[in-house]
């Protein structure tokens, strides 16, 4: 077997991020640059999708341009709550709609995953985070996590303070453990956990099929070593290549909030000798890594076990089933040759 030395390794990327850098990175991932309410194509089989677009539109309209004097705003915005929560299964376009909403918000605004906001608080401290974010028109939180009660409470308090200052909040659901069946209970869990804020949120439920699977059918593409080399060489931009075991080890040494910087600027990665994961911590870190690859639209070229089989049957039967299924959907999309 030839040892590849021609591509850089992700293991040489162990980034630190300052609070200021994290705050600067709080914009939608590049792949959602073009996401608008108009480019969201509601599936006619799932009426909740077109309804979701309308409700996001209404949420945005209450910021609308001031017309007809001082008191018109009050009339227009009377029905709108300060928060909106998009709840649904994976791939139904929650992040797309959140990014579209963010781009319509006036003035200073932020967009990040729950993990990124907790990393910001970790880097700046709570009070400085409040100072940094306050006065924004909108805080968009993609994939609100309920896994860690401490983080959830902290975020709930932070959002409460910001909302009191007039900032509006938009969030999407993550995939809580054990929520089989497309996250049917996510909205209830969310409301319970943010109980102090619950009545400020409008819940928008989005049903449907994984949009990525509408176009990307089938399995993750699997290659041999030469295929990985050829794939990486075909990429216009920075690439990296690693063996799967080494990559997992590296992921365990970098905080998941920094994976975003680890993959920054990459256009493609090679992963050699993929094998089915047996350790749950490895698997969850790999999921977080895949999320960042997906956000940055980094193409994946791999050898060994097809990446859609990287989570064993035991794992898929367990509490994090939805997270793993979503990661598979993303892996299939990233290994498919498209542009
Ligand atoms: N109805 C739709 N019309 C057009 N594009 C869509 C639609 N639904 C999803 N997409 C696109 O499909 C991809 C996946 O959607 P998105 O990431 O927004 O889904 P999601 O609900 O956030 O999924 P996940 O649970 O994985 O976070 C994105 O590129 C998005 O722009
Ligand atoms: Mg999403």
TrEMBL record:
<dbReference type="GO" id="GO:0005737">
    <property type="term" value="C:cytoplasm"/>
</dbReference>
<dbReference type="Pfam" id="PF03969">
    <property type="entry name" value="AFG1_ATPase"/>
</dbReference>
<keyword id="KW-0132">Cell division</keyword>
<dbReference type="GO" id="GO:0005524">
    <property type="term" value="F:ATP binding"/>
</dbReference>
<dbReference type="GO" id="GO:0051301">
    <property type="term" value="P:cell division"/>
</dbReference>
<dbReference type="GO" id="GO:0016887">
    <property type="term" value="F:ATP hydrolysis activity"/>
</dbReference>
<dbReference type="InterPro" id="IPR027417">
    <property type="entry name" value="P-loop_NTPase"/>
</dbReference>
<keyword id="KW-0547">Nucleotide-binding</keyword>
<keyword id="KW-0067">ATP-binding</keyword>
<keyword id="KW-0131">Cell cycle</keyword>
<protein>
    <submittedName>
        <fullName>Cell division protein ZapE</fullName>
    </submittedName>
</protein>
<feature type="region of interest" description="Disordered">
    <location>
        <begin position="1"/>
        <end position="25"/>
    </location>
</feature>
<dbReference type="InterPro" id="IPR005654">
    <property type="entry name" value="ATPase_AFG1-like"/>
</dbReference>
